[in-house]
Design goal:
Helix content: 25-40%
CATH class of the largest domain: Mainly Beta
CATH topology of the largest domain: Immunoglobulin-like
CATH architecture of the largest domain: Sandwich
Structural class: alpha+beta
Shape: globular
Number of strands: 29
Distance between the termini: 61 Å
Radius of gyration: 27 Å
Strand content: 25-35%
Largest sheet: 8 strands, mixed
Length: about 625
């Protein structure tokens, strides 16, 4: 298949030198049939006798093989006279349609399935919802990732697109795409090429959109909340201070002129059993369970803190593999530590540096990264894992980009601060790399470490080659010591106990007591039983989403002897009975890993780096 694609690309060189005729795409959201939407595309002029229409097999940011061609139905190709031409779906996940006698090809049409739902033959690989599409005519909400609906002629990926979308008059389409025109029921959007189009999702729903300007950029928030548990104004109010801090963190000016948050709240069970967001250069798309508004607010804020920083990387700093992404036979970059790890680190570092949370909260966040990173093998270099992330052996390691990847970012930050005596940090390096490269100039994967060393210090290059390109464990103790932070691999402490129970999920995705084999005295006094389904804890409703917050509140704010009360549902003689369990709070000594604390006898040099890193503690 590689050879065939190369041949077609070779033929297309002459075509690309001609006038860049646009693809004209028509989508009618008023005529949805069985969760399918029809796509009609008038094509640029074709001179070849045989062409291939490509639907994306994979897209940037997903690090997964999605095979969007499997959602295409009833594909047809037509010549200038309206006669149907022969077309055949080919291999590689049904993502390629070969069209014969294509010199007269004028139009193609097909139906696209909703990826949120089950349908026959494709239930073995449910897509993470933010990378798919949902067409719900009965609720007038249409979540559209353009790459899941629209493709390109091989060799004509860089032709412009004009997308006309007809929609019910009572809904509005939010997107970062350029809106060429709008009427009551039709919008026309434009995109410079397929890469630009694929990078811009669209969400149509009942209008709930708000716009504000931050650091010269127009920030758009659009929300679909079926039960009205959250509004766009609430989201904007919740993330506004974060975005102001992020703009300051990036030097006071954002590298984009617009950015859209598209937030779809789910009141149904996710087939992918996941929630979160997919980043784009000028937007991010979220699918999150619709829960209580106070829980949603923190979820959106936490995810937004990460996704927004993707305007730096990979938008302005990226490799050749990302710059000209191969949607059919993707090649991965070595530098997931940069695209995802540094982004994740920045999302927590900005919040301590600009007083959105305190220094101890920041250390707790770093400790959590250390704990979860331990669950992944350390003998595989990060660059090797990144390059081979689509392979079955390496795919399970991807999640570590948010843990060890973030720790790489922290160490790199501290290396820069240490060797510049507090004058240069990671954000300085990101700005310098943006100047060297930028969104239109990619780097070569194998050159990045050398370029960073050239901009900084030999010690920084050595760190990257040994601990990112190599498999030597990260120098956590040494790096943190430079900033006056004491690191203890194992430490003991006394904490409020929940009773030595293990929690899990039942078939209804409710928290339950899954294992009481290690129950302690407090747990015995509470009277726990395996299978007890948690309803409330100390008066607060408990769910998978807020359990950590509820139990943390107990651990931090209760004193020994205070009454602990848990309401549970328990099966008794075939009936579900609601019971209230209670006992006086107790503490137990536990041994924990990765203890972090600020040294009380830090030197002046350590305090200087600490201040440059986190700002002075209050």
């Amino acid at each position: 298949m590689k050879k065939a694609v190369g041949f077609v690309l070779g033929i297309s060189v002459a075509v690309l030198t001609m006038a860049q005729e646009p693809y004209k795409v028509a989508i009618d959201l008023t005529k949805v049939k069985g969760d399918k939407v029809k796509v009609v595309i008038d094509l640029p002029g074709i001179s070849q006798n045989y062409i291939e229409y490509h639907m994306a097999r994979s897209v940037p940011g997903t690090y997964d093989i999605s095979n969007f061609g499997r959602f295409v139905k009833d594909f047809k190709a037509f010549d200038n006279a309206g006669e149907e031409l022969a077309s055949d779906p080919m291999g590689v996940g049904r993502n390629i349609y070969g069209i014969s006698n294509a010199s007269g090809l004028s139009r193609i049409s097909y139906w696209v399935e909703d990826t949120f739902d089950e349908f026959r033959g494709y239930n073995d690989h449910f897509l993470f919802e933010p990378q798919g599409s949902s067409f719900e005519k009965n609720r007038d909400v249409f979540l559209m990732n353009t790459f899941a609906m629209i493709g390109y002629i091989d060799g004509l990926k860089f032709n412009p697109y004009e997308i006309s979308i007809k929609h019910p008059e009572n809904i509005y389409g939010a997107t970062s795409l350029n809106r060429l025109s709008s009427t009551a029921d039709t919008d026309v959007f434009t995109a410079d090429n397929f890469n630009f189009l694929a990078d811009a999702p669209i969400m149509y729903c009942e209008p709930d959109t708000v716009t504000r300007e931050i650091a010269g950029a127009k920030i758009i928030v659009s929300v679909f909340s079926p039960n009205k548990m959250m509004s766009s104004n609430e989201v904007m109010d919740n993330i506004y201070d974060l975005m102001v801090a992020q703009s300051e963190y990036l030097g006071g000016e954002l590298p984009v002129d617009r950015y859209a948050y598209l937030i779809y709240l789910e009141d149904f069970y996710s087939l992918s059993e996941s929630w979160g967001a997919l980043e784009h250069s000028y937007s991010s798309m979220y699918t999150i369970p619709e829960e209580e508004a106070d829980e949603l607010a923190q979820m959106v804020r936490d995810i937004a803190a990460h996704e927004f920083f993707h305007i730096v990387t990979p938008l302005n700093i990226h490799s050749e593999e990302i710059h000209d992404f191969n949607y059919i036979d993707p090649e991965m970059s070595q530098h997931l530590w940069l695209y995802e790890g540094v982004t994740e680190y920045s999302s927590i570092h900005v919040q301590v540096k600009y007083d959105l949370y305190d220094h101890l909260t920041f250390l707790d966040a770093i400790r959590e990264k250390l704990l979860i990173a331990d669950e992944f093998p350390d003998e595989v270099s990060f660059t090797e894992m990144s390059k081979r992330i689509l392979e079955e052996e390496y795919a399970p390691l991807y999640e570590n980009v948010y843990y060890k990847g973030a720790l790489i970012g922290m160490c790199l930050d501290l290396y820069l601060l240490k060797h510049s005596n507090g004058e240069k940090d990671l954000q300085w390096l990101m700005r310098e790399l943006s100047k060297v490269y930028g969104k239109d100039k990619p780097f070569k994967d194998q050159d990045l470490f050398d370029k960073i060393e050239e901009l900084t210090y030999p010690e920084v290059g050595e760190f990257l080659r040994n601990h990112v390109g190599g498999s030597i464990p990260l120098p956590i103790y040494e790096a943190l010591s430079w900033a006056g932070v004491t690191y203890e691999p194992i430490y003991s402490t006394k904490v409020m106990t929940l009773g030595g129970i293990a929690l899990g999920l039942n078939g209804d995705q409710k928290l339950q007591i899954a294992d009481d084999s290690n129950v302690n005295d407090f747990g015995l006094e509470m009277g726990y039983q395996n299978g007890d389904v948690l309803v409330t804890f100390n008066g607060q409703k408990v769910s998978l989403i807020n359990a950590g917050e509820v139990f943390d509140d107990f651990i931090q704010n209760f004193a020994v002897g205070d009454t602990v009360e848990m309401v549970v549902n328990r099966h008794i003689e075939g009936n579900m009975v609601k019971l209230t369990l209670s006992a006086p709070a107790q503490k137990e000594e536990i041994f924990l890993e990765h203890g972090l604390s600020f040294s009380e006898d830090a030197t002046d040099d350590q305090l200087r780096i600490q201040k440059a890193w986190l700002k002075a503690k209050k």
